[in-house]
Amino acid sequence: MPFIFRDEPMQHIQTFKDYLSKPQKMVILTHLSPDADALGSSLGLSRYLKKKGHSVIVIAPSEYPDFINWMPEENEVLVFQKEKPENSAQFIQEADTIFCLDFSSLNRINELGDMVRKASAKRVLIDHHLEPERFADFEQWDSTAASTAELVYQLIVELGDKALVDSNMADFLYAGIMTDTGGFRHSNTSYKVFQVAAQLVEIGANPYKVSKLIYDTNTIERLRLTGYVLAEKLQVLPAYRTAYMVLTAEELKRFSSQNGDTEGLVNYGLSIKGIKLSVIISDRKENIRLSLRSLGNFSVNEMARTHFGGGGHRNAAGGQTTMTLEETVKKFLDLLPSYKDQLSAE
Ligand code: 5GP
Ligand code: MN
Predict the structure, then answer these.
(1) Counting atoms of ligand 1 from 1, which one is nearest the CA of 290?
(2) Under a CB-based contact definition with an 8 Å cutoff, are residues 71 and 105 in contact?
(3) Domain with CATH 3.10.310.30 in the chain
(4) CATH number attached to the domain at 220-344
(5) Residue 3 has what pLDDT?
(6) Closest CA to 299 of 190, 183, 187, 132
(7) Strand order of the sheet with strand 97-101?
(8) Where does the chain show beta strands of DSSP type E?
């Protein structure tokens, strides 16, 4: 039986507080290819829970990009794909509580998903993605929140522990909010976003430092990849108000592309006047990855979920296929006529 119900989190916050009152073994899990919100919210929460006397390990299914490697301390994050699988399995099996942050479906964490399903721990979901799988005992879920970091901050405040948020934690949470709103520019940039960000700055987050660390630590290869993609690979289909880019494995290798390097590229498509849908399709060898962005009511969550085994938010989603790159591109292009009405609507 759930001990707190999603629809009434405030009513049951005392139950959750009581539940957290004795020291526990805890695991915090986040999604594949963690971004700044995934890692920032996980580390913010883990530092908080440690201050409350719990023993906590953060597990990331795969490597995080270099531009967020200033966040974790040594051995603070266990990267599943880099370690022996038994290590993560043991933490998950022995945990009293497992927190799942910034994802809401267990198949987004590959093999780890099954381990979580079988674990005897209580499961806590903190997330803002659409259509969550109902696997958790406690859900702090709000798809109107711009970031998971915002929800972690809110939870700590609701638990009466705002005073425990220090300037490091504030930097991590601020980083999650900043990146998931695209630097306070996307349509999810609400009044609450600024309120929480302001409170984090009051606590000691440094917006200048965080934005320099995240946005201004490009490698030359990464910049050249951007130049190459914009000059040679960006395609525009005015009839569908769509921009798309296709990257082969060879191209990614040529620019020494690392995980996370194509993040942001897809947004250039949307910066073209009149474009409503932008997609980057890249050959990641193990699968073909799609990153989708849209403007207004056009739901890339629906497109990714229905056709590309993925999901996300209305205006930002991802997916993957096990087809070839060419087949995936064809599938995407063949789909566009069925979306034409939605794409041409204002
Ligand atoms: P990105 O394009 O930056 O990888 O992802 C955009 C958004 O969609 C992020 O919020 C991300 O968490 C979500 N997302 C990306 N890939 C998937 C996926 O395969 N499944 C689901 N449910 N969400 C995804
Ligand atoms: Mn997020």
Answers:
(1) 2
(2) no
(3) 220-344
(4) 3.10.310.30
(5) 44
(6) 187
(7) 77-79, 55-60, 25-30, 97-101, 122-127, 138-141
(8) 25-30, 55-60, 77-79, 97-101, 122-127, 138-141, 235-237, 242-247, 277-283, 288-294, 311-312, 316-321
Label residue 264 by pLDDT band (50, 70, 90).
confident
Query: What are the start and end residues of each CATH 3.90.1640.10 domain in the chain?
Result: 13-215
Q: Is the CB of 312 under 6 A from ligand 1?
A: yes
Buried b (16+ CB within 10 A) or exposed e, 61-98: bebbbebbeebbeeeebbbbeeeeeeebbebbeebbbb
pLDDT of residue 11: 54
Closest-CA residue, ligand 1 atom 15, reads 318
Q: Which two three-digit tokens encode residue 228?
A: 């190459």
CATH number of the domain at 13-215, out of 3.40.50.620, 3.40.50.2000, 3.90.1640.10, 3.40.50.20? 3.90.1640.10
Query: Which numbered ligand comes closest to the C-alpha of 103?
Result: 1
Q: Which residue has the tokens 């507080």?
A: 17
Residue-wise pLDDT for 168-197, tens only, equals 999 999 999 999 999 999 999 999 999 999
User: What are the structure tokens assigned to 244, written together?
Assistant: 């798309």
